[in-house]
Design brief:
Blueprint lengths: L7 E7 L7 H11 L9 E7 L5 H10 L4 E4 L12 E2 L1 H6 L4 E3 L12 E3 L2 H11 L10 E5 L3 H12 L3 E6 L2 H14 L6 E4 L3 H10 L2 E4 L24 E4 L8 H8 L4 E3 L2 H16 L5 H15 L1
Parallel strand pairs: 1-2, 1-3, 4-6, 7-8, 7-10, 8-9, 10-11, 11-12
Antiparallel strand pairs: 3-5, 5-6
Bound molecules: NADP nicotinamide-adenine-dinucleotide phosphate.
């Protein structure tokens, strides 16, 4: 028997999506704020949606009265053409949050698209004592996929000197020129990951290293693109991969005596908190969300 009526439906769409931590995180927030019960009860679910089904899924969600969605791999770029996206999401070229108008910001006929990935990463770094202000910092970003696009946009906009290093060099070059085109003061550079000597040179000069590739993610937990002897102790090392929590890259950073070592959980929480704010207009309980994610990750190991 159905015990309660749900009035507000939120969710995450992607493929694969079964292992997403967003349901645990967002439902913990609804519960904490008393939003999971009562006449306006809210729930957050995961829906597996393929690239081919994306248009139907978004039109269906809107018709069924869904309140909002997060979008993940491999749909973030394609989702842009099915929503009215805010300017920043358009410039990044990807959407990770859709508001169908139930929130205070929405109201658009097709759902309004946002990208909160980069905001989260920037905030995480700024909160670190060993990093602080991004302006003038030399940032080496590994990867040129969806996450790298969002992160590099926010860090370059904040005055970071961004270098994109990617396995497929052309993607790094395309991303760097997109940043330079859209941000007046950006001077982003690109390199391929083929030359270890060039990567080592860049690492020597970098203040911040960010892994925004999927390298090191479970089940390939022993993989890393950078090892301890390539790092210097003043480098801040941030791995956005959070599964496992202690990635090989972060272990290598500890071996190298790096003082600022940051895992991917806070970024996940901050992007989710930003989505929550867009949908509900309420201040999200960030600590509760972070605990929910860390507990869920611990249960998995
Ligand atoms: N903490 C968070 O909140 C958060 C948010 C978003 C994503 N993430 C994590 O970040 C990772 C990337 O996500 P995404 O959405 O950007 O994925 P994506 O769009 O599929 O991009 C994947 C990136 O990884 C690179 N890559 C994959 N395998 C590689 C290998 N063996 N060697 C070198 N490079 C490799 C790809 O290079 P090519 O271009 O050469 O293929 C590409 O740059 C995932 O693990 C995801 O879980 C975390």
């Amino acid at each position: 028997m159905v015990k309660k009526m749900v009035k507000k439906i939120y969710g995450i769409i992607g493929d694969p999506v079964a292992h997403s931590l967003s349901p645990v995180m967002q439902n913990a927030a609804f519960e904490e704020l008393g939003m999971s019960e009562g006449k306006e009860a809210a729930v957050y679910l995961a829906f597996r949606v393929s690239r081919d089904e994306l248009g139907d899924a978004l039109r269906g969600a809107k018709s069924l009265g869904f309140s909002g969605l997060n979008v993940t791999i491999p749909l973030k770029e394609k989702a842009l053409s099915f929503v009215d996206a805010e300017e920043v999401a358009k410039k990044i070229g990807a959407v990770n949050t859709i508001d169908f108008g139930g929130g205070v910001v929405g109201g658009a006929a097709r759902g309004r698209g946002y990208n909160t990935d980069g905001i989260g990463a920037k905030r995480v770094l700024e909160e670190e004592e060993g990093v602080g202000e991004i302006k003038g910092k030399r940032v080496l970003i590994l990867g040129a996929g969806g996450a790298a696009r969002a992160i590099s946009f926010y860090l370059a906009a904040a005055g970071g000197e961004v270098t994109i290093a990617n396995r497929t060099r052309e993607r790094a070059a395309e991303l760097a020129s997109n940043l330079n085109l859209n941000l007046r003061n950006a001077r982003a550079r690109a390199l391929g990951l083929g030359s270890t000597a060039e990567l080592k040179k860049q690492l020597k000069e970098a203040d911040i290293l960010i892994n925004a590739t999927s390298v090191g993610m479970s089940p390939n937990e022993n993989a890393t693109l950078v090892t301890a002897e390539m790092m210097h102790s003043d480098l801040a090392v941030f791995d956005i991969v959070y599964n496992p929590l202690q990635t090989r890259l972060l272990k290598e950073a500890n071996l190298a005596g790096v003082k600022t070592v940051v895992d991917g959980v806070k970024m996940l929480v901050y992007q989710g908190a930003a989505s929550f704010r867009i949908w509900t207009g309420q201040e999200p309980p960030v600590e509760v969300m972070e605990n929910a994610v860390r507990n869920a990750l611990e249960r998995r190991t």
